[in-house]
């Protein structure tokens, strides 16, 4: 008897998942433990494991389709067996075809902007050639009908959707149409007509896009809106002499970067050093390592340190567990592994949850100072800016060239007060300006 494989609940907040890619095809032999599909959750892209032996006799969801948690995505059975009917808790839609755009195309003309009613009537269009296709990818109001996934792929490949004939319902452009098109195909198709026309002005490099909102982006939006509206943020900033940190990093990398890995070779980033310093400073001001629990405030015995990693769909915050117990080399190595997994969308929910303090760094983009939004339910988030050369006054009242790093702190006033945040920033400043203390 066939077994249905349901959309698994891969995170606490997940209600739907997008089936990004099938790893097995219908008719393939499946063994327990095989990964059959990649699913985008509200946090990451993860693989779905099958726990049965047999043949994949049915795929119930196309690539790009949103499927509710618990709904069937596949059936595993014996070769030649008929797949059972699968009930869905939501209306079936190919490639997320039920997005709001479909409703917008059906809106009455009365909903159009008022300026449109004042426009002069357009001249009658020339009759279409006899060979013109029966369906078109453009709706009556000029909007190109394409699924969110098709739009995203087209944007990534630099393909003009107007050059593609859709094969979906009503001429809608779907994923396969875009994947079969070639970048620049629109320009080559228009070439014969352009040959007999006067030279036109160069095309604009900007274009309007309606980008689909991924499950991850929805999750980020929900979490940050909740944090900003529920947690009363306060903001502090401190200036740090970044020279000693830069010197230590240069010395370490000069000695270690060229060594083979088996001989201890490694290379440290500014982010590695600031993560270690942030965890070390909590030892001096443990009150920063708290969370708001509604009826209580919890002070955590370990620093589960989250740090921001930018990816295509937004920002994820992998967590280094018990960071205060780990040395600089261990933190640097773990951060590199987590960053790689984040960019490949392979982070597990456990690797992105349970943080007690967060560090975000935009210094590599030249941003000198900013304030992050607190990661629920942390008491604070640190914002690390770039180290900038600027005139400073030294201990002898001399104006010299200094290396200034600005560090911001956003705090949750329900959990901590300004004095705790200030004490923590002072402790962090002392460590960063005497960074050798991190090595003992």
UniProtKB/TrEMBL annotation:
Domain Peripheral subunit-binding (PSBD): 145-182
Transmembrane parts of this sequence: none
Cofactor: binding details: Binds 1 lipoyl cofactor covalently.
Leading EC class: transferase
Domain Lipoyl-binding: 2-77
Reactions listed under catalytic activity: N(6)-[(R)-dihydrolipoyl]-L-lysyl-[protein] + acetyl-CoA = N(6)-[(R)-S(8)-acetyldihydrolipoyl]-L-lysyl-[protein] + CoA
Cofactor field: (R)-lipoate
Gene Ontology molecular function terms on file: dihydrolipoyllysine-residue acetyltransferase activity
Top-level taxon: Bacteria
Composition bias, Low complexity: 85-95, 119-139
Keywords for the protein's UniProt record, in alphabetical order: Acyltransferase, Lipoyl, Pyruvate, Transferase
InterPro entries: 2-oxoacid_DH_actylTfrase, Biotin_lipoyl, CAT-like_dom_sf, E2/Pdx1, E3-bd_dom_sf, LAT1, PSBD, Single_hybrid_motif
Region spans: Disordered: 80-143
CDD domains membership: lipoyl_domain (cd06849)
Biased composition regions of type Acidic residues, renumbered to the chain: 96-108
EC code: 2.3.1.12
Assembly: Forms a 24-polypeptide structural core with octahedral symmetry.
NCBIfam families for the chain: PDHac_trf_mito
Function, in words: The pyruvate dehydrogenase complex catalyzes the overall conversion of pyruvate to acetyl-CoA and CO(2). It contains multiple copies of three enzymatic components: pyruvate dehydrogenase (E1), dihydrolipoamide acetyltransferase (E2) and lipoamide dehydrogenase (E3).
UniProt similarity note: Belongs to the 2-oxoacid dehydrogenase family.
Stated name of the protein: Acetyltransferase component of pyruvate dehydrogenase complex
Organism: Thalassobacterium maritimum
């Amino acid at each position: 008897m066939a077994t249905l494989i349901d959309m698994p609940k891969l995170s606490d907040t997940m209600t739907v998942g997008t089936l990004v890619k099938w790893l097995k095809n219908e008719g393939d032999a499946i063994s327990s433990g095989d990964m059959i599909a990649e699913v985008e959750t509200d946090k990451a892209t993860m693989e779905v494991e099958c726990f049965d032996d047999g043949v994949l006799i049915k795929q119930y969801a196309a690539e790009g389709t949103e499927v509710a948690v618990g709904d069937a995505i596949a059936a595993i059975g014996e070769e030649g067996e008929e797949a059972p009917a699968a009930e869905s808790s939501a209306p079936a839609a190919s490639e997320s075809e039920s997005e709001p755009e479909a409703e917008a195309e059906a809106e009455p003309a009365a909903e159009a902007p008022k300026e449109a009613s004042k426009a002069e009537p357009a001249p009658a269009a020339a009759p279409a050639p006899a060979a013109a296709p029966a369906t078109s990818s453009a709706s009556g109001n000029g909007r190109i009908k394409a699924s969110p996934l098709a739009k995203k792929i087209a944007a990534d490949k630099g393909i003009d959707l107007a050059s593609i004939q859709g094969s979906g319902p009503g001429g809608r452009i779907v994923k396969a149409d875009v994947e079969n098109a070639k970048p620049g195909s629109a320009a080559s198709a228009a070439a014969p007509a352009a040959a007999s026309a006067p030279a036109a002005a160069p095309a604009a490099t900007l274009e309007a896009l309606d980008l689909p909102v991924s499950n991850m982006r929805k999750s980020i939006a929900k979490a940050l809106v909740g944090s900003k509206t529920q947690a009363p943020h306060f903001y502090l900033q401190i200036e740090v002499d970044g020279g000693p940190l830069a010197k230590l990093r240069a010395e370490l990398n000069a000695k270690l970067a060229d060594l083979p890995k088996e001989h201890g070779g490694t290379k440290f980033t500014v982010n590695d050093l600031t993560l270690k310093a942030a965890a070390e400073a909590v030892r001096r001001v443990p009150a920063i390592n708290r969370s708001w629990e509604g009826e209580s405030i919890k002070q955590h015995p370990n620093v589960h340190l989250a740090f921001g990693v930018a990816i295509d769909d937004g920002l994820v915050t992998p967590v280094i567990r018990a960071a205060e117990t780990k040395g600089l080399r261990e933190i640097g190595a773990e951060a590199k592994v987590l960053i790689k997994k984040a960019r490949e969308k392979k982070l597990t929910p456990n690797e992105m949850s349970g943080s007690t303090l967060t560090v975000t760094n935009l210094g590599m983009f030249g941003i000198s100072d900013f304030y992050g939004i607190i990661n629920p339910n942390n008491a604070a988030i640190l914002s690390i800016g770039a180290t900038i050369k600027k005139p400073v006054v030294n201990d002898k009242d001399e104006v010299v060239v200094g290396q200034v790093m600005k560090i911001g702190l956003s705090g949750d006033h329900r959990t901590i007060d300004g004095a705790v945040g200030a004490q923590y920033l002072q402790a962090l400043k002392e460590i960063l300006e005497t960074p050798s203390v991190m090595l003992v």
